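Page 37, top half.
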Amino acid sequence: MKGLPNLSALWETAISIIPLTAILAALQIFILKKPLHNVRDFIIGFILSVLGLHLFLKGTTMSLIPLGDSVGRNFVIIEKKWIILVIGFVIGYAATLVEPGLKALALEVEELSQGAIPHMVLIHGVAVGFGCGMTIGLLKILLNLPYIKVLVPLLLIVILLSFFAPEPFGAIAFDAASATTGPVNIPINMALAVGLASVIKGVDPLISGFGIVGLTSIGSMISVMILGILTKI
């Protein structure tokens, strides 16, 4: 009986993947009239994807989210607030370096640009922007600033830079922003922000604790566009 909750959670993960898999397989077989090249590998891959996603979600719930929340709640013992901002930048920067989606994007960009945009340069550029966005998000929480007062200036900067950033950096910036919102960054950064907001007097964690993922994405966009302008210069 103890294993029933785990089996139930595993089944919930499976039914979230089954529809997409079924649609793609149906398109391949019935619409495009193409066979599945290796049915055995397809079935094994599907099983591994279900198990992998289930284990990742379970592990995140047990480790990253509680750890991020605990760190955020204990930030208040640091008297010098600028240290909190530095720590936030380091966490955002380091977490971005291991995002699998960003690595895949950077390698694709390097290949299509024939090495003109090295993948490590793009990854570190995005990581710097993400760390800056994380810093701005934590500063917003510490000062209890309205979200709109932080968001609007950043969006104006994005619009302004889009006029000067050479192609394809404008398009890459948008993709890089989405690539940073992956399985490593979201659990850590969101839990960190909510944890910090929940222990600051006069700050509503529901209002101030969320939105930091969006700010980090905008920070990544800005850094990629600036990188494009610097390469042009």
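Page 37, bottom half:
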Amino acid sequence: MNDRDLHYLLLLGHQRTNKRISAQTRKEGLMPGQPKILEFLLEHNACNQKEIALGCALDKSTVTSLLSRMAEEGLITRATPSEDRRRALVCLTEKGRRCAVRVRDICAQVDALAWRDIPEQEREVFLQVFRRLLANLEEPSARKESAETQ
């Protein structure tokens, strides 16, 4: 592995950003996985567990356990229109909204650190290429599912 291997650079990028974000969100009393869900709900409030799992790239069972803990901590509420908890709409509480805003600020600070000394034009080019890389790596079943829900 070296600095010309895409998979290795992606791994390093994820590890380094995750380490910085986790260090700060732990100080807020959040456990791994919770910040990602809070940030997602800040932009997509009142959605179901399946939408959260897809939006956060998390396993459904992981989302179930994280949401249970978040509900106990008063970060979210569930409005269940039926007996099926998977259909429940998950919403941020006021406490959850405050935490989500803090998570968004922490992530923005880490992003700013990563973008330091990189001109705007280079950032845009990088993001365009990176989106294409992600599209190339997306599983065909995920693309089909995504297209069906839009």
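Margin note: The chain has one domain: 8-116.
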